[in-house]
Amino acid sequence: MRPPAPHRRLVALGLALSAGIAGCSEVEPERDPAPTWVQELAHEQRSFPAGAQWEKAGSQPPVQVDEAEHFASLRPDERTPEERIPDIVQRGYLIVGVDQSQNLLSYRDPATGELSGFEIELAREIARDIFADPDAVDFRFIDASDRVSALDSGTVDMVIRTMTITPERQGQVEFSAPYFTSQTRVLVHKGSGTTGVNSLHGRSVCVVDESTALQHTRTYAPNADILRVRNWADCLVALQQDQVDAVVGDDSILAGIAAQDPTTEIVGRPIDKESYGVGIPPAEKGHDTTGLVRQVNSTIERIISDGTWQDMYAQTLGPYQTSVSPPTPHYVDEEGER
Fold it and tell me: Quick one: average pLDDT of 62-78?
């Protein structure tokens, strides 16, 4: 792996200083090519994004990520929003946790200053079905690592933030039916020579902490160093500054990064498949949210059947990603068995 530019400059400085000092001595002492203090100082000078953590290859064991292929959510019923979620209806607006830097999915458009993206539009469609007003949404910006805690604390009604449905997370939150399916892949600089996850041996990778991509990287690229950051925008900056060699993430997220930086490209075969669901507080933690799950699922059903989903995709991710189809929902049966 080629060290970051600040690292290279500091190593060169250390070598020059060492050579100068040695030249003044009659006997040149044995020394390492790069003194330890130079290496440590160089690492400190990388200026990683705030909250980032550097994980040496193989220092953390991977945790198996199981895709919830047979996940079933609550079926929409015939009740009205006033009957399903009276407290939210009385309040007059939704509180939704989102990202503000995931290009094409959930981001602030620099041209308009407005929030845009597929997930922002989904939140507005849910509000449309509840209040007949797509703007009746209070968006709250949360980090990926704070999604579950934001739901537990009641800070938000729901989270729409590329939250993959996994068996582990099903024990933490209630999920809607899937609203999008993506594939985990690798993003690199064009011409880097990286052809996929199998060519990351001895290189460095950026992922968002607490993401399924982190576990996939530990599993499929065990010999790569990992930079764990708070959001995917930090990964783009780290890649542009040569702090890492690659980014591993969902192709829906990587497509947004590639759209921002045309010097990058998505390479290699998919590592795994991810299905996103709307995260909702679980009823067993003191929240009566079964009605909200059914309400969200009714919107997902509606936008898929009336073509709104396809329009949302075409206006956001469509131009930058291989065309995909909306996922098929599966529901709990009448007896409550999945």
Answer: 80
Structure confidence by residue, pLDDT tens digits, 93-102: 999 999 988 9
Sheet holding 204-208, edge to edge: 53-55, 225-229, 204-208, 246-250, 180-189, 264-276
- Residues 6 or more apart whose CB falls under 8 angstroms from that of 268 comprise 185, 186, 194, 195, 196, 197, 198, 199
- Determine the average pLDDT of the residues in 297-324: 93
Two tokens, residue 102: 């995931």
Q: Specify which residues 228 forms β-bridges with.
A: 53, 207
pLDDT value at 19 more than 50: no
**Quick count: other Cβ atoms within 10 Å of Cβ 313?**
20
| Coil, helix or strand at residue 222 | coil
- Residue 241 has which token pair? 């500054």
Amino acid at 323: S
What amino acid occupies position 193? G
Grade residue 333 by pLDDT with cuts at 50, 70 and 90. Answer: confident
Is the per-residue pLDDT at 44 higher than 60?
no
DSSP 300-330: HHHHHHSSHHHHHHHHTTGGGS----PPPP-
> DSSP labels for 20-84?
HHHHTSSSPPP--SS-HHHHHHHHHTT-PPTT-EEE-TTSS--------TT--BPPP-S--HHHH
Our CA angle for 126, 68, 317, nearest 5°, is 50
CA 267 to chain centre: 18
- Give yes or no for a contact between 323 and 251, defined as CB atoms under 8 angstroms apart: no
